Amino acid sequence: MGGSYKKKQRAEKAKVKLKGAKLPKGLNVTKTEFKIRKITIKEQLKDLKYVDGQRQINIKETLNRLKHHGSNFRLESLRKLREAIVNNSLDILGCLNEIIQGVVSMCLDAERDIRRESFKTLSILLESLKEVSIEPFFHIISSYLRCAMTHIQPYIQEDSLLMLDVLLDHVPSLVAKHSHKIFQNFLEMISRVRADGGKAGRMLTVNIGKKQTNVKWRSKVLLRLQQMLSNLVSQRKEEKDSRGAFTISGGKQKNPLIFNANVPQYYGVKRSSQNDLPCDLSNIFQRTIGENAMPGNLLIHEECNQLKSYVDHLMPLLLESWLEVRPQHTSGEGTERSINSDAAQALKIVSEIIADLWFLIDIHEEQTNNHALSLWFQDQYKEIFALNFVQTGFPYELMDGDKEVNGPENSVNKKRSRKSNLSPLTSYCYNQNICVSYIMCRFFAGNLQIQAENFSRILKYLKGVIDSMDPKREHDYLSILLKALKSLLFMNGLQMLQTHHEGTLLLLKSSVKSFLSHKFGDSISSSTLLLLLCEIIQDSCLYKAYNCQELREFLEFLPHLLLKSSISESTLLSMVQLGKQQNEVFLSTLRQLFSDVVRNLERIKVNGALDVVEGKKHIINLFYWLNPQSVREEDLREITSNLNECITDERLNDYCHYVLTLNFNRSSLTFGDHIDTTPLPPPIHRTPLAGFCRIKRMAPTLVLKLPTSSPIDTSNQEAYPSLLPSPNQRPLHGLSVHPKVNGDRF
Predict the structure, then answer these.
(1) What backbone phi and psi angles, to 5 degrees, belong to 156?
(2) What separation in angstroms does the CA of 466 have from each of 482, 509, 517, 716?
(3) Is the pLDDT at 317 greater than 60, yes or no?
(4) Cβ(499)–Cβ(455) below 8 Å
(5) 10 Å Cβ neighbour count for 177?
(6) C-alpha closest to that of 328 among 264, 393, 378, 262
(7) How many CA atoms lie within 13 A of 642 on its CB side?
C-alpha cells in the first residue's frame, strides 16, 4: 500500500509545471463598454386580449394533454386550465361538456397530486358558473364520484370524500337531488352485505394494512354522510317553505283587498313565489300511503320507501359503530361516562345522523299528514337506542388524558380539526349529550313514563347546561338544545309534568331566566326560544299547569321589545295572539308603555315583513286588544292628537287613527247596547275583517242586539263559529266566565 502511494507521488512531481505570464497592470480590468442597437416597434398591439401579458391557452390542446401518459403534462394542463378559468380567457359555456369530462376524470388518476389538483380546478369551475349551467352535466360528475367512492384503490376512495366536499360547498341542491344515488356508495365504503343467509342486512368491514384505524376511517365516511343528510334536510325545508307559503291574490300593494260585508267576497289563493300561477289542489285529498296509494301519490310513496330504506340500512351500522367504541361496563365509579376522543367523535356523528333521519321523517309526514313512518321508527329502535346510548353512561365526557389534547383552548387541535373536517371536541361533550337527549324525546314521544329514570337524568342535565351557559361565548349546540326544550316543555309538557313535575318546572324556569339574562346570545336562538315560550303561554292547559312567576316576568318583558330599534315579524304575531287571548299580564305592561310604543313606531324596523307598512301594522293591531276602559280617554285623545308628530307616514297615521277610533267607539259600550256591524269607512290600507274584530273579542255572556238589516244571520250560530262564541266555549286568558258589570269595564 505504501509503495504504490509513493510511486504516484513521484509521478506527480515529475510532471511539467506550466507557468503563465501575468498581464500588465492596465490590462487586467474588465471592460464595461457594450455595443448595443436600438429595437424600433412600428405600431403597438391593437388586440386587447394580448395586452395583459397573460399566456394564451389552446383549449383543445390543453384538454388533450389531460390524457397524456406523463404525469407532469397532466398536472401542468390542470393548472393552465384553472388559470384560464380564473382570468375568464376561455369561452367556458361553449365547451363545458369537454371541460367537465376532462377535469372530473382526473379524480380516478393514480397520482395523488393530480387528484388534488383536479379538485381545486373543479372548485374554481363550479364557482365561476351558475347552478343552472351545471345541472345538465351533473350526472357526469356524480358518476365519477361514485366510481371513486367504490374504487379498488383505498387512496382514491379516501380522496373521493374531498371531491364530495367540493360539491357540497358549491352545488348543495344538486347533491341533494342525487343523494339517493350517492347514499349506497357510502355503505359500500364501510360495510358489506352479510355472507350468511340467516341474517339480512350489512356488517361493518375491517380494513387491515391502512395507516389510519378503522374507527377514524368510518368517522370520516360517516361525517360526509351526515353532511349530505343535513344538506338534504335544509333543501327539503326550503322546498317546503316555497311550496307551502300562500298569499291572498293581489300581491303586496297592487290590489289590496277591502272587506265589505254587503258584497260577496272572493279570495283567489295563489302561491307567494309564483303569483301568476294558481295553486295545484288536484291531490289535496289523496293522503293514502301504502299498496293502495293513488297514482297522484306515487312520488310520495317512493319517498316514503326511500326514507325507510335509509333507516333500515343505516341504523344497524350506526349502532354497531357506537358499540365498538363506547365505554365498557366496569366496577369503577364514573368510568362508564368517560370516553376517548375517537369515541366522542363517533358519538357526535352517529347522533347527528339519527337526528337528521328524524328531521327528514318530520318533513315527509308534515306534507302527507300521515305518521305511520315515525311510529314504525319508534317501534323498531326506541328500546335499542335507550339501552345503548342512555342507560350505559349518560351524560358522557372526555377522559382526563384527552381533555388536555382535545380541549377547546388547544389551537393545535382546532387547526387539525379544520384540516380533517372534524369539529373540535369539548371536554363535556355538550353536542353529543344534547343530541342524544333530543333523540330520546323523539323515540319516546307520548310514552315518556316508560323511561322515567332516564328522562329524570336528561332533565337534570339540560338544566345544568342552561345554567352554566356563558353569554360572552358562542355555543354551537343551541339549535339542537332548543329542539330538545320544545320537545320536553311544549310537545310533551303535560306528560312530563305528570311524571317529573319538579324537574320539568325547574327546566322551564332556567330557560326563562336564561332568556331574560341574554344567555342565548345571537338573535336567531333568542327568537326561537321566545317563540317557544309564547307557544307554551298560548296553550291554556300548559300555561295553567306551569303557573310560575318566571312566565309572568317573561310576559312583562315582551312589550319592552316594541321599544327597540328592530323586532321580528314572528315575534309580533305571537304578541298579537297573546292580545287576542286577552292575557292580562301582557296587556297591562303594554298599557303602561302605550305612549312610548306609539312614539317608537316611526323608528322601529320589522324584520321579515312584506314591506315597512305591513310590518308596523302588526304593532298597531296590538292597540286594538287593549281594554278601552283601562286606558284613560284623555290619554287616548292626547295620543291621537299627537299622531301627526310621532308618525310622518300618512298610511300608518291613517291606520293608527282608525284603530284608536275603534277603541273610542268600544269604550262607551254596555250590556244590551246596539252594535252596528256595518264597517266604518276605513282608509284604503285597512286590514280585512277589521270590522268583525269587535264582535270576536266580546265575552261569552255579552248580549248583542243586531239590527234586522245586519248581513249576519244570528239565528244560526253554527254558520259563524268564530264570530259568535258558544256558551260552552272555554274562556280565554284574562277573561272570566261571568264578567263583572260596573260602570267602568265589562
Answers:
(1) -70, -40
(2) 11, 10, 11, 52
(3) yes
(4) yes
(5) 15
(6) 393
(7) 13
At residue 690, does pLDDT exceed 50?
no
Note whether 480 and 429 are same-domain residues: no
Q: 384 in a domain, yes or no?
A: yes
Considering the domain architecture, whether residues 481 and 430 belong to the same structural domain is answered as no
| Average pLDDT of the segment spanning 378-389 | 92
Strands 246-248 and 269-271, how do they pair?
A: antiparallel
Which residue segment(s) compose the domain that 408 sits in? 301-443
Number of domains in the chain: 3
What is the band of 598 on the pLDDT scale with cuts at 50, 70, 90? Answer: confident
Question: Residue 162 to residues 141, 387, 496: CA-CA distances in angstroms?
Answer: 13, 35, 45
| Preceding amide of 727 cis, omega within 30 | no
For residues 267 and 246, give the distance between their C-alpha atoms in angstroms, rounded to a whole number.
12
Three cell numbers written together for 563: 321599544
* pLDDT higher than threshold 90 for residue 169: yes
Distance between CA 269 and CA 245 in Å, rounded? 10
b vs e for 514-527, b when ≥16 Cβ sit within 10 Å of the residue's Cβ? bbeeebbbeeebbb
- Other beta carbons less than 10 A from residue 26's beta carbon: 6
Taking only the tens place, the pLDDT of each residue in 245-289 is 444 433 344 445 555 666 676 665 544 444 454 555 545 554 444
Decide if 224 is inside a domain.
no
| DSSP H/E element including 601 | none
- The dihedral formed by the CA atoms of 599, 605, 611 and 616, expressed in degrees to the nearest 10: -30
Residues 506-538 have pLDDT tens digits of: 999 999 999 998 888 767 888 899 999 999 999
Q: Check if the beta carbon of residue 516 is closer than 8 Å to that of residue 552.
A: no
pLDDT of residue 507: 94
DSSP characters for 417-432?
HHHHTPPPPPTT-HHH
SS3 215: helix
**How far is the C-alpha of 319 from the C-alpha of 307, rounded, in Å?**
18
DSSP 8-state code for residue 681: -
Q: Are residues 62 and 163 in the same domain?
A: yes
Are 354 and 318 in contact, with CB atoms under 8 Å apart?
Answer: yes
CA distance 317 to 310: 11
The helix (run of H) or strand (run of E) holding residue 271 is strand 269-271
Q: Which three cell numbers stand for residue 95?
A: 365547451
The set of cell numbers assigned to 91 is 369561452
Beta bridge partners of 192: 203
> What global pTM score does this model have?
0.75
Contact criterion met (CB below 8 Å) for 206 and 191: no
Residue where a domain stops, chosen among 194, 212, 229: 194
Q: How far apart are CA 61 and CA 429, in angstroms?
A: 54
Name the H helices within 191-283: 214-244
